[in-house]
Design brief:
Largest sheet of chain B: 5 strands, mixed
Mean pLDDT of chain B: 93
Strand order of the largest sheet of chain A: 2-3-4-5
CATH superfamily of the largest domain in chain A: Transmembrane di-heme cytochromes, Chain C
Low-confidence stretches of chain B: none
Number of domains of chain A: 2
Mean pLDDT of chain A: 91
Number of helices of chain A: 11
CATH topology of the largest domain in chain B: Sulfite Oxidase, Chain A, domain 2
CATH architecture of the largest domain in chain A: Up-down Bundle
Helix content of chain A: 40-55%
CATH topology of the largest domain in chain A: Fumarate Reductase Cytochrome B subunit
Radius of gyration of chain B: 22 Å
Oligomer: heterodimer
Number of helices of chain B: 6
Strand content of chain A: 5-15%
Number of domains of chain B: 2
Radius of gyration of chain A: 23 Å
Shape of chain A: globular
Shape of chain B: globular
Structural class of chain A: alpha+beta
CATH class of the largest domain in chain B: Alpha Beta
Strand content of chain B: 15-25%
Largest sheet of chain A: 4 strands, antiparallel
Helix content of chain B: 25-40%
Order of helices and strands of chain B: HHHEEHEEHEEHEEEE
Order of helices and strands of chain A: HHEHEEEEEEHHHHHHHHE
Structural class of chain B: alpha+beta
Distance between the termini of chain A: 30 Å
Number of strands of chain A: 8
CATH superfamily of the largest domain in chain B: Oxidoreductase, molybdopterin-binding domain
CATH architecture of the largest domain in chain B: Alpha-Beta Complex
Number of strands of chain B: 10
Low-confidence stretches of chain A: 1-14
Amino acid sequence: MTEIQEAAPALASNSQRRVVYRHALLTRVTHWINLLCVIVLLMSGLQIFNAHPALYWGQYGADADRPLLEIGANETSSGQLTGFLKIGAATLPTTGVLGASDNADGDVVERGFPRWITLPGFRDLSLGRRWHFFFAWLFVANLLVYYVGGLASGHLRRDLLPSREQLRPKPLLHDIADHLRLRFPRGDAALRYNPLQKLAYLGVIGVLLPVMILTGLTMSPGMDAILPWLVDLFAGRQSARTIHFIAANLIVLFIFIHVAMVLLAGPINEIRSMITGKFAIVPEAKHE
Amino acid sequence: MSSFQIPRRRLLALGAASLGSALLGGCDRLSEAPDFQAFLASAESLTYRSQRLLGGGHSMAREFTAADLSPVFKVNGTRVPEGEDYAALVESNFADWRLRVDGLVVKPLELSLADLHALPQRTQITRHDCVEGWSAIGKWTGVPLAAVLERAALLPAARFVVFHCADMYEHALDGNGQYYESIDLIDAFHPQSILALSLNDAPLTVGHGAPLRLRVERQLGYKQAKYVMRIQLTDRLGDIGRGKGGFWPDRGYEWYAGI
């Protein structure tokens, strides 16, 4: 139990510190399986995206149609490749990262996303699809287990649904101010998720992840025949592909914020609680 | 408690480390291992069986209106099949072209373009989805595949319909570079599975697969074989090409391309 003292050396001497069982086994197991799935899906998804690095809106979209977003490369008169990212009318130079980047031999080649972020690293659409669809099945199964378990145990309602009190403007503003000052709850208050945290988790679990699955299914011609409303829900297959990409970016944004919060709130205690379930409560220094 | 925790901690550290190294490069080696590829590919049969269970023979691909047509329908894959044989067919406007239907059928057929035009026709405005990610909407007219298969009359052992094409897509060392594709009988007898003779009210151009291409509307673009020369009914795919049921399936892509 030495990590607890490492986690909060200044306050440990009060010996008011308690260890509580915070995360149920189901939450912990599904969290880490989900992390594995999301990373594989993001990286293999970029491999698939690289096969046609342009996004459209509507039912159709191909070379002759105007994209919303496009990643590509131009060749300069001296034969050098320069990468670009085009969003609407704006064009950004992105050589080295987007459009043109190194291959395994160190030569600059035309490539949507760079090899260090795609799965596999070398260009292979068929393998990217193999990875993507295998882990998509695992991801969906894992999420279903989490939903069913979370509803049955009351975890979703008890831990994630914000209370009416939490959603009132004053506590919300207070919570936003606390986040901006990087002040984190101590003592028993740390046991409950704060409103922004609840909204972020619910937004990912209840909105972004289902949107990823549904837009993914909308790209499947077989599923479009089985569930025609999917195509209408997302205003076309190419719109669904665009939404799939945007939602994936929002998930990446969430991961960055989530990891930053874990690091700021006490990474050892937080990560251990998601592995063993045990979370150390550090008493509040003083009441506000 | 601590005697229990240490090995577990070590295990977790090991797990985290192996995950990290796997993600930082090991994945490429994993991707290249045939056993691992086969493991990942197991998801394909899950997808196939799920979509068959949910949609089976009945679910229809969306049919659009003329207002939804793509201004330009992209030509992809082979643009012009190589070789004098195909060039001669184009030269004669496919007058001597014949579609052979053989294999596990009661009555093998040889059909000219005129024969195909004399059969019932179906027109459908559908979305073509390339495995690369783009889509195009086109208006296809042609003979329902079922009408041709009914005339040939399948033997009970027939399980797959194989489409042999005129285009050599790759000069492969093992001689298996000829384009071909195959579908199961559920897709073969689906009302929207047609042997298309025209795109957007004009006879198929060479780029789009003249004189005949397959449309299997609930699957991806690489299943829509162009330049169809011969339709073979078979009970197995293992002895055709490299044995995976199609040019792209032989090269790692899913045989069932409903996703």
